[in-house]
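Protein modeling request. Please complete all fields; requests missing the sequence field cannot be processed.
Requester role: graduate student
Desired output: 3D structure, token encoding
Chains: 1
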Amino acid sequence: MHILIQWLINACAVYATAHILDGIHIKSFGAAILVALVLGLINAVVRPVLLFFSIPFIIVTLGLFLLVINAFLLQFAASLVGGFSIDNFGWAIAGSIVISAISWILSSLFDL
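Delivered output (112 residues):
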């Protein structure tokens, strides 16, 4: 049950982010649910590999390179899911920050 609630929270965060930021576009809430699923799978499979190989960059930039990784993964999800698009990499960075913030706030409200 916890996983389903977190999945819906992430879908709401993606949907809200698309309405907050002009450079991120989504067609429907169904697309947001699919984006949340794809992002969850990408974060479970691809992100650990990217983090491992980028440890030196993360250390040198004091963790700021994590924003680049998150933005890259968000753009990768946008390339896989129809109905979800990001105009450029700058919007992907902003989108990853806003999605993280909204997910954190909603997770705190639901005590997850």
